[in-house]
Design goal:
Alpha-Beta Plaits, five-stranded mixed β-sheet, 15 helices, Beta-Lactamase
Length: 479
Amino acid sequence: MSKFTNKFSISSRGIRPKLIVAFCLMSVIPILVCFNYIFPSWFQGFFLSKSNISITFLLASSVIFALLGFTIVKEMVDNILKISSDAKIIANGDFEHKISVKRQDEIGDLGKSLAELTGRIKDNMSELQTYSERTKEINLEINKRVLALSSLLHISNLISQGDDLNEVLEVIVEKVTQIGDANLGFLILFEESSKEYVLKSMHGPKSLRLKSMGLEQFRVVMGKNALGRLLAGRETLVLDSRQEVNADIEELQKHLMVVNALIVPVVVHDKSYGLIGIGNDNQNFTYSISDTELMSIFAKQTSIAVENDILLKKIDKLEIRDVLTGLFNESYIRSRLDEEIKRAINFQRPCSFVLLSLDDFGDYEQRYGKIAEESVLKKIATLIREGTSDIDKAARFSDSEFAVVLPEKNKRQSLNFAEEMRKKIELVFQGEPDNKKRLTLSGTVTENPIDGVSADELITKALETLKKNSPKGKNQIWS
């Protein structure tokens, strides 16, 4: 029955048949009017005689037909306007808007096509959004890598330049605090002097609170408490939302006052030398693989810095010459003075120690720069070397101080030597046109056994005498 109904139903027809039907229905009145005016007698006589139908009924029928035609046209126009309105809403970006026109003609096909097009656009937009989010993640990851690489290069430069170990370690901990949303970064290292594991550095907002509460929780003994057991195991700990909580984890969270932590061992010469770690208080947080890799790299950088410092200290002990001046260095002159004192005691001979210090040399360096400073030090070293004998030993004692060990010379002879050096330096730099470049030096002399029976005693006495008399004036020798 429904097939039969659809076959003869106008709603199942296309726009063209509907427009023809509407045109025909709406043309009834004009046709009747034309016939009434052109063939009035025939028109009225035919209808009135054949069907006995009144003019009123004919007119009413004509109006009904016209209204039916108008209704058909209006219904098509309304649907077209509705689709146009839907298209505008979708064009403004509302891809969730539903197409309400459902017909079986060309207008219905248009609505269906528009709905399919909207669906495809929505899918494409969703896919683009996914790509955009993924691109943001990739960009963030790239930025993290670039920042980490920059940090690693900075640390490598500090190590290669031979900067102080503590300064390098401070920079390392500061850089690792930029990983994994950290609000705490810390470094625990073995200290050779105390033979204990101590906190070397700590950074981040959380560190302020920890410092205010004391740092007892960072005292580490191998194998004891959570950090000590972690140190003994020499394994990386990744503590985040994936980690099952146990007694050690709870203890560690309590000690560090964090929810999440990433801690990596620092290994030096195959020995567990310390721990470097970060932490934060984020809920449902997970450390990425790249976070763990970066922390491992920073741990290796820490190991390199420590190994480099150990090696430099060994080299310093073996080295006897000052690189800049070519004179002996402080460590050598101390040991040499000890040997000369022992020899002098055995043979009952004198032995003196001369300490010479350039006056206001710190101001000279600030005013004229590093190159000028080095040039002056080399020149003074040459003058001192020329003024000593083969058995005398001259050294650069500190940045602006020189020392000379004078075997077989008593204090009076050593004072003469020191005075000659003072006059020679004054004379050499007297010719400088710039008054501020006219350098002078002051000095002091100590003798064994009058001022001491060991190198440390003679040197300490010389330093004290120089410090005590320096306010009295420049360009003088004291004993």
